[in-house]
Design brief:
This protein is of the alpha/beta class. Helices cover about 55% and strands about 15% of the residues. The protein contains six helices and five strands; from the N terminus they run αβαβααβαββα.
Amino acid sequence: MKKNIINIISCFFFVGSLLSQDVIAKNETLLPNWESTYKGALKKAKEENKPVLIYFTGSDWCGPCIVLDEKLFHSSKFKEIADKDLILYEADMPRNKDILSPDKLEVNSDLIKKFKIRSFPTLVFVNHKGKMLTYKKGLILTEYYYPFIQSVIENY
């Protein structure tokens, strides 16, 4: 009986470690292209003359956000477009508030109020002054995001 309990506990730890490694690997592929602060994103947008894409998400609870994150933001096509023509900022509002610093949570909350975000996921494009250019709410087929993003870039 004692061996069975030890085996069950070992399985839980093994599965838990595998799942946590997956989350870490996923976040590492997302973060390099994204600015860590909103002010930094605006400053970089001014320097490089590019629009800022603000991605409003609930990373640890919003199912459509998780799908969008995997299918759009982790695609090589999006990374190519973003590296060339966009400045990216993720405005996350997780249920687990320990994921982000209190300062970042406050900035993201202020952005949600400023742009009147009522649903997740929402993509908002702004200029270097923080003025909204356009937005798209909800999850749509990934291939429909590309013409939308291209039109923002072309009209900037």
